[in-house]
C-alpha cells in the first residue's frame, strides 16, 4: 500500500460549509505560495456554490478567480465539483453548454473534475465525463452516498462499475451529509476496490462527528485518497482537519509525507481570515449526530434555519427536520445534495408552514416528478405525482436528450455584455444575476456585500467617525452608518446606527438576521379573500397578470423564488385583478398583499 494522498478543500468546500461560501479571492491569494508547497494531491478551488457566490454576493468574476489561482498555484492540481448535466446551475443544460463549460474550465486551469449527479442517474454524467476526457483532464466519477431501503452496497458497486466503463479515471464516494459510519465505510470501500481497479477517494463531511474514523477505515480497506480541510475551517459540517489526519497516519505504511509545521502556519493564516467572516457563522454548522436520523446536510441545516428565522418561525425547525424524511420518501429517496436538498428542504418548509402537506408544490418538485432531473432512485408517490402534474407525460429518457443546442441562443440573448465565451457561460448558469453582474461590470458599479467589522467599541458621539454601507431590508435599500457598539445582552450584540437620517437601534442575533423598527416594503397586510400573498420570504421571479385581467381560482399569478427554488403563487379566488404591488426582482415577505383580486 502506497502513501495516502490528500485533497484539501480549504478554498472551496470548507468555507462553503462553514461561512456560506463567502471567502473572497483576496483572502486566498496571499497564502497560495505555502499551499502550493505542501504537496497536496490536489486543491479543490472551484465549483459547487463558489460560482454562484462570486456572482451573486462577492461581485467577483469566478473565471478570473480561477485564472488567478492557477497562476498562484503552479505546482498543484486544481480540482472542481461539477454537477453533471446541471453544471453549476439548477437545471439541466443542453450538451453543447456542458461541453463548452468543461472545455473553458480546463482551459482556465482545472485539472481534476469531480462529476456527480444528485440522483446518481449516471446518464446525467455521460456528456460531462466525455468532455473532460476530450480535454485531457482527470475525470472523477462520483457516487453520492446516502441511506435508504434502495441504497445498498450492491447498488453502489454497480454504479462504480458503470463509472469505470464510462471512462472515469477514479471513483469518489461523496458523503455530503455525514451519513457514513466507520464499519459501513470499510465494507463499501472493500467491495468497490474488489470490483473496480481505480483509485478511490473518500469525501465525508464531519457533521455527525464520524468522518475522521470513516476515512481511517476506508484507508484500511484500500482507499488511496481522502479529502480534508485545514483545521481553521475544519470539523462540524466541514471535513476532518488536514493536520489531524496527517498526524494520525504519520509513521504508518500510509504516511502522507506532508509537513505538519507548514500546515500549522497555513492554519494560523486562515484562523485570522475566518474572523473577517463572522457574520456568516451559524450555530447549525457544528457537529450534530442527529444527521444520522434526519439526514439533513449541514449546509442545508443553516439554509433552512435562515429561511425560518426570516419569518419568525425558527422554533419550528424541528418540525421541518421531521418532515424532510417524509418528503424524501415521497420523492423516491433522492440523496440530499444540491439541487435535491433544496428541492426537498423547501417543500418540507412549505408543508410545515402552510399546515397542509403539499398544499403548495414548488415548480422544482413538479419538474422532478415529471422526470426533469432524471430517474429517482425508487418509486415516487403516485398520489403526489398526480396532484403535482396531473396526466402530463413523464420523461423516461435522459432529460438532456430533449434539449436543443443552447450556446448560440445564449450568445444572442446576452449580446455585447459578454466579452468572452466565459461570460456567456456565466449568463447561462444564472440568467438573472449573471446578466445583472455583467451589466454592473460594464457600468463600473459592482459592489460586493459588506463585511461587518469583527470588533468595535464605544457609543456614538458627535465627533465619532461612522462606517457607512448600504443594507437591503424587505426589498428596500437603506444608507446605514455604524457609529458604535454596545455591550452584549442575552447573547445579542447591539449596534447603534443612523438609518435614513434617524437614530435606530438594530440587533444582530446569532444568525445575523436584521431586526429594525421599520416595516420596509410599505405593503399592506393581507386581510381579504382576494389578497394574494406568499407563505415564504423570497424574490419575485415573474408577474403573470396585470391590472384589469380576469383570473380563475387556482390560476398562477406570480412566480417567487426562495432557497433557489421557484414556486407559483395562485389566485385564491376568481375575479378581476385590481392591484399589482410587486415587480420582477422585488423582495417579498409572508402576509404582504402582492396582488389584489375583486
List the helices and strands and how they pair.
Blueprint: E1 5-8, H1 13-18, H2 25-28, H3 32-38, E2 42-47, H4 50-58, H5 62-72, E3 77-82, H6 95-108, E4 112-115, H7 126-135, E5 138-144, H8 153-166, E6 170-175, H9 182-195, E7 200-204, H10 211-221, E8 225-228, H11 242-249, H12 260-275, H13 291-294, H14 298-310, H15 317-330, H16 340-354, H17 363-369, H18 382-389, H19 407-414, H20 421-429, H21 431-443, E9 467-473, E10 476-489, E11 492-499, E12 502-508, E13 514-515, E14 531-532, E15 538-543, E16 550-551, E17 556-562, E18 565-570, E19 575-580, E20 587-588, E21 595-597
Parallel strand pairs: 1-2, 1-8, 2-3, 3-4, 4-5, 5-6, 6-7, 7-8
Antiparallel strand pairs: 9-10, 10-11, 11-12, 12-13, 14-21, 15-17, 15-20, 16-19, 17-18, 19-21
Helix pairs in contact: 6-7, 6-20, 8-9, 9-10, 15-16, 19-20, 20-21
Would you mind describing this structure in some detail?
The chain has 598 residues and is an alpha/beta fold. It contains 21 helices and 21 strands. Helix 6 crosses helix 20, helix 9 (182-195) packs parallel to helix 10 and helix 19 (407-414) packs across helix 20 (421-429). The longest helix is centred in the middle third of the chain and has 16 residues, at 260-275. The termini are far apart.
Keywords:
8-stranded parallel barrel, 21 helices, 5-stranded antiparallel β-sheet, 21 strands, alpha/beta
Amino acid at each position: 500500500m502506497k502513501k495516502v494522498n490528500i485533497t484539501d478543500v480549504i478554498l472551496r468546500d470548507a468555507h462553503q460549509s462553514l461561512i456560506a461560501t463567502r471567502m473572497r479571492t483576496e483572502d486566498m491569494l496571499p497564502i497560495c505560495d505555502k499551499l502550493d508547497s505542501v504537496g497536496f494531491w490536489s486543491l479543490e478551488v472551484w465549483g459547487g456554490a463558489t460560482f454562484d457566490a462570486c456572482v451573486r454576493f462577492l461581485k467577483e468574476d469566478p473565471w478570473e478567480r480561477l485564472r488567478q489561482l492557477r497562476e498562484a498555484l503552479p505546482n498543484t492540481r486544481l480540482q472542481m465539483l461539477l454537477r453533471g448535466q446541471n453544471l453549476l446551475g439548477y437545471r439541466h443544460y443542453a450538451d453543447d453548454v456542458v461541453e463548452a463549460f468543461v472545455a473553458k474550465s480546463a482551459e482556465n486551469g482545472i485539472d481534476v473534475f469531480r462529476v456527480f449527479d444528485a440522483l446518481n442517474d449516471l446518464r446525467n454524467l455521460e456528456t460531462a465525463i466525455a468532455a473532460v476526457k476530450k480535454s485531457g483532464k482527470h475525470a472523477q466519477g462520483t457516487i453520492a452516498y446516502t441511506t435508504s431501503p434502495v441504497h445498498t452496497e450492491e447498488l453502489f458497486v454497480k454504479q462504480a462499475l458503470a463509472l469505470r466503463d464510462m471512462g472515469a479515471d477514479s471513483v469518489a464516494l461523496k458523503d455530503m451529509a455525514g451519513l457514513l459510519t466507520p464499519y459501513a465505510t470499510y465494507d463499501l470501500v472493500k467491495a468497490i476496490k474488489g470490483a473496480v481497479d481505480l483509485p478511490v477517494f473518500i469525501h465525508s463531511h464531519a457533521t455527525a462527528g464520524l468522518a475522521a474514523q470513516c476515512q481511517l477505515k476506508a484507508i484500511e480497506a484500500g482507499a488511496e485518497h481522502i479529502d480534508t480541510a485545514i483545521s481553521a475551517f475544519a470539523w462540524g459540517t466541514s471535513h476532518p482537519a488536514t493536520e489531524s489526519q496527517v498526524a494520525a497516519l504519520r509513521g504508518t505504511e500510509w504516511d502522507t509525507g506532508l509537513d505538519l509545521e507548514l500546515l500549522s502556519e497555513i492554519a494560523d493564516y486562515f484562523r485570522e481570515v475566518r474572523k473577517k467572516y463572522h457574520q456568516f457563522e451559524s450555530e447549525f454548522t457544528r457537529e450534530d449526530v442527529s444527521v444520522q436520523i434526519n439526514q439533513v446536510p449541514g449546509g442545508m441545516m443553516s439554509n433552512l434555519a435562515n429561511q425560518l428565522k426570516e419569518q419568525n418561525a425558527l422554533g419550528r425547525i424541528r418540525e421541518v427536520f421531521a418532515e424532510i424524511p417524509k418528503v424524501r420518501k415521497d420523492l423516491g429517496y433522492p440523496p440530499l445534495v444540491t439541487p435535491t436538498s433544496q428541492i426537498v428542504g423547501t417543500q418540507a418548509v412549505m408543508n410545515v408552514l402552510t399546515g397542509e402537506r403539499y398544499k403548495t408544490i414548488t415548480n422544482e418538485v413538479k419538474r422532478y416528478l415529471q422526470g426533469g432531473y432524471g430517474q429517482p432512485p425508487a418509486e415516487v408517490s403516485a398520489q403526489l405525482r398526480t396532484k403535482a402534474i396531473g396526466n402530463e407525460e413523464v420523461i423516461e429518457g435522459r432529460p438532456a436528450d430533449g434539449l436543443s443546442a443552447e450556446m448560440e441562443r445564449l450568445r444572442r440573448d446576452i449580446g455585447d455584455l459578454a466579452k468572452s465565451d466565459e461570460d456567456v457561460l456565466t449568463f447561462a448558469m444564472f440568467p438573472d444575476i449573471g446578466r445583472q453582474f455583467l451589466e454592473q461590470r460594464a457600468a463600473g458599479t459592482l459592489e460586493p456585500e459588506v463585511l461587518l467589522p469583527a470588533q468595535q467599541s464605544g457609543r456614538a458621539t458627535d465627533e465619532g467617525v461612522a462606517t457607512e454601507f448600504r443594507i437591503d431590508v424587505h426589498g428596500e435599500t437603506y444608507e446605514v452608518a455604524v457609529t458604535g457598539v454596545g455591550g452584549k445582552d442575552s447573547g445579542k450584540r447591539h449596534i447603534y446606527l443612523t438609518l435614513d437620517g434617524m437614530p435606530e437601534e438594530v440587533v444582530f442575533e446569532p444568525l445575523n438576521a436584521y431586526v429594525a423598527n421599520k416595516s420596509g416594503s410599505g405593503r399592506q397586510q393581507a386581510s381579504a379573500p382576494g389578497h394574494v400573498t406568499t407563505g415564504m420570504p423570497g424574490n419575485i421571479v415573474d408577474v403573470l397578470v396585470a391590472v384589469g385581467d380576469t383570473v380563475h381560482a387556482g390560476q398562477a399569478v406570480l412566480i417567487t423564488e426562495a432557497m433557489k427554488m421557484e414556486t407559483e403563487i395562485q389566485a385564491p379566488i376568481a375575479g378581476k385583478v385590481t392591484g399589482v404591488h410587486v415587480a420582477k426582482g422585488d423582495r417579498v415577505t409572508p402576509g404582504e398583499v402582492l396582488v389584489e383580486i375583486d
